[in-house]
Amino acid sequence: MSAEPQVAAPLLSVRDLHVTYRSQGGGVPAVRGVSFDLAAGETLGLAGESGCGKSTMAGALLRLLPQGTTVTGEVLLDGEDVLTMKPGRLRAVRWTEASIVFQGALHTLNPVHRIGRQMAEPIEVHDAGISSGEQRRRVEELLGVVGLPAGRADDYPHQLSGGQRQRVLIALALACNPRLLIADEPTTALDVMVQAQVLQLLEDLQQELGLAVIFITHDLSTLSTACRRLAVMYAGRIVEDGPSREVFREAAHPYTRALSAAFPVIGDMRFRLNPSGLGGDPPDPREIPPGCPFHPRCPVAESRCATEAVELWPTSRPGHTAACVRVLGADA
Amino acid sequence: MTEPLIEVRDIHVRFRGRKGTIARAVDGVDLEVRPGEVLALVGESGCGKTTLARTILGLERPAQGEVRFRGVPIDYDNASLRRFRRQVQMIFQDPNGSLNPRQTIYEAVAEGLRIQKVEGNEVARVADALSRAGLRPPERFMPLYPYEVSGGQRQRVVIAGAMVLQPELLVADEPVSSLDASVRGEILQLMLHLVQDTGIAILVVTHDLGLAWNIADRIAVMYLGRIVEQGTTEELLDDPRHPYTRALLSVVPEVERMHPEILQGEAPDPTRIPIGCRFHPRCPLVASGETARLGIEERCTGEDPSLHAVGGAVAASVHAAACHAVALALR
To answer: A49–B181: do the CB atoms touch at under 8 Å?
Structure first.
């Protein structure tokens, strides 16, 4: 259940999503019951460490996971369940309704085709009758949207820098005017200044085109400025969800607090010569601890945390939920 | 004042590229690393920071200038270099790339002792290094293979391998950038403890100003092969003077007191270093017409600025910036 103010039907509604990978030793549950809503034009940051299930979840939203992976629950895009769509419909929905930008722009583009050719592909697939002149015009327009000169259409990927390639990938994702953009670590491999450029671009696009964006990264501090809303995942579940400044700086969940403390505030003496970390490792998805999955690493765990199941409970603040028993105590 | 551990004097390192171009990766750098200090060398990729670090380690030979260790220039013959590397150790960003998957943790840590032909009780030395790196009890970790421990523990193994020789300087190139956020803090804590417990000096190469705030005593900011600003961490991050440092700091997500100054274009090219101030084509002060207003535009496009003391000079550290506008304001 969402504690947010009631708005019109959400653009995306994820209900009790479970993803289990097939492996030799039996199933590996990577996502273990994730539910959230995303309104049109909303930006949601999804944070968590490697292995927390955030990229798996992104892949599940558009059914991009390897064959044999078990996905259950509902992914309602404009009320239509992506998980039960026929292949033809799914193909139409990818690109035109929702598209995804992966990390590592170097490997996503085909090295032997010119940029323009690669960008024309999704346009052609979704609009078979389009003339080649119109196609070219659209490619140049898209390059303009992401701040690249039209002439780049004639270049091969290796002729572009890392930041320019990432811009091409964003242009590609926008080729069919989707309403939802999923960006999985879109800036991780980029240099600080180029990263700032790409973030600025995403923010501008979100505002100009009214795009809804799910922005996935391990970098909590980037998310806190790039997104209004922030969800933190741990061991396959969302453990905290709320307004990003609040989640980042006044976290309700001890895991979020530990994660935030790893991103020092420059100028804040509390962080000066005092790096902060969290002991231990995230649990093996095959052996999730009972009770709260975070309790073995939690600095404030109580005895009940080892046995009592947790779920996303509302905190005392509107639109802010956390999966920690202490939230219940604070509420009473 | 204590004698510097490392002194870099007017170092130039050049690489020959394709089509006969020459990249001036390090283009005239003076730098000191003092015993027991943590110095952060900060800049974008391609600024020459890794090349400078490799030159300090004796892995690159400068075309001009010299590196002195305890006042003595590095000798580049093999035997001298081997002795030198006992004093100066390096750790890289990706622990997976630094560890041989077929070697146990014991063998990985003992390797340096064997290469250096260190006499004495090998097991005791390895155990001591593992404990120092926070892998306790060491006996439990010795027989394990790298894949049997977590990413953070792997980086600890790499650090133990460097510390086993009891070096005086540790050069760490992006030591935590491949690690998860929660582990990152643990490794940085470990590095601070090593400095406190053993008096080792650390030169940390990073793009991350937050990391510098976390552990560094001093910061040197590098741009296109040159140090453009240096000072104590507080001086440099509380009161950055060079427009490049200011821009770098302004795009850190957590720094809200600054308006983000996003420099356009890609990281610049060391085969074509601009004349005048090497930063002028991207400089916000030039773009905004500020330098024209100050009447220094010709200087910015024609004269290569050198490091100017910014004032408030503490004997231990002189906050200095290489910028004509900064120099003018001080006049």
So the answer is: yes
Strands (E) across B176-325 are located at: 201-206, 218-223, 226-232, 308-309, 320-321
Q: Which residues contact A86 (CB under 8 A, 6 or more apart)?
A: none
Rounded-to-integer distance, Cα A177 and Cα A120, Å:
13
Query: A312-321: string of b/e by CB count within 10 Å (b at 16+)?
Result: bbbbeeeebb
Closest CA to A153 of A162, A143, A161, A167: A143
Match 């030395």 to its residue by tokens.
Answer: B125
Q: Least CA distance to A160: which residue of chain B?
A: B266
Q: Quick check: B262 and A200 in contact, CB under 8 A? A: yes
What the block records as the tokens of A273 is 């010569």
- The pTM (predicted TM-score) of the whole model is 0.88
Residue B251 and residue A195: Cβ atoms within 8 Å?
yes
Q: Taking CA atoms, what residue in A is nearest to B46?
A: A191
Question: Rounded distance, CA B49 to CA B41, Å?
Answer: 7
Q: How far is A225 from chain B (nearest CA, A)?
A: 6
Quote the pLDDT of residue B317: 56
pLDDT in tens, B144-193: 999 888 888 899 999 999 999 999 999 999 998 888 888 889 899 999 99
Q: What's chain A look like in SS3?
A: CCCCCCCCCCCEEEEEEEEEECCCCCCEEEEEEEEEEECCCCEEEEECCCCCCHHHHHHHHCCCCCCCCEEEEEEEECCEEHHHCCHHHHHHHHHHCEEEECCCHHHHCCCCCCHHHHHHHHHHHHCCCCCHHHHHHHHHHHHHHCCCCHHHHHCCHHHCCHHHHHHHHHHHHCCCCCCEEEEECCCCCCCHHHHHHHHHHHHHHHHHHCCEEEEEECCHHHHHHHCCEEEEEECCEEEEEEEHHHHHHCCCCHHHHHHHHCCCCCCCHHHCCCCCCCCCCCCCCCCCCCCCCCHHHCCCCCHHHHCCCCCCEECCCCCCEECCHHHHHHHC
ipTM confidence? 0.86
What are the chain B neighbours of A284 within 8 Å (beta carbons)?
A: none
